[in-house]
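Design request, tokens follow.
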């Protein structure tokens, strides 16, 4: 029997921040209060990520400009990684650079071949303030780098250039969710 509830079970699904919102290109603020509001935010992040069928979600993707992200993501060996990181720092990104398909809940339905390292290490804290270190390889390393980019005010499209970037921006312009006035 489980001792704790499923992440997000007590959270509320929040609207996603979509491409074009300046919040996605603004570095997030450090979390200083590790109280109940942070716990609610983490629950809401999980609930929203699961509803949107994602593998990771950062706080600025639901309108909160704070350095927090959650994940429920497999690695290349299909091992499930489930957790959250508060005030993350990318301390290692190395190994082989692999171009693979990458999408984002803030650019729904779109993806592009994006280069990422196949190994990443993130240090940070849990919502209760305990220090943690998260190691990722393969697809999970991609996820960690992607979510870390979000708290730094970057999206995967920022890693693209040339025809890959132009193609993605054409798709964004035609997307049904595109922001009015963009």
């Amino acid at each position: 029997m489980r001792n704790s509830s499923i992440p997000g079970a007590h959270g509320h699904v929040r609207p996603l921040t979509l491409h074009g919102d300046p919040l996605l290109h603004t570095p997030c603020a450090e979390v200083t209060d590790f109280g109940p509001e942070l716990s609610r935010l983490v629950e809401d992040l999980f609930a929203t990520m699961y509803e949107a069928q994602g593998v990771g979600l950062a706080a600025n993707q639901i309108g909160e400009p704070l350095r927090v992200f959650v994940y429920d993501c497999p690695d290349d060996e299909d091992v499930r990684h489930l957790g959250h990181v508060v005030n993350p720092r990318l301390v290692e990104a190395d190994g082989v650079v692999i171009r693979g398909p990458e999408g984002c809940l803030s650019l729904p339905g779109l993806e592009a071949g994006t280069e990422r390292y196949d190994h990443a290490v993130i240090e940070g804290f849990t919502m209760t303030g305990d220090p943690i270190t998260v190691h990722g390889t393969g697809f999970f390393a991609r996820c960690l780098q992607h979510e870390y980019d979000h708290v730094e005010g970057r999206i995967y499209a920022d890693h693209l250039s040339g025809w890959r970037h132009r193609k993605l921006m054409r798709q964004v312009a035609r997307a049904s969710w595109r922001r009015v006035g963009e």
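Comment from the thread starter after seeing the answer: thanks! The longest strand covers residues 80-103.
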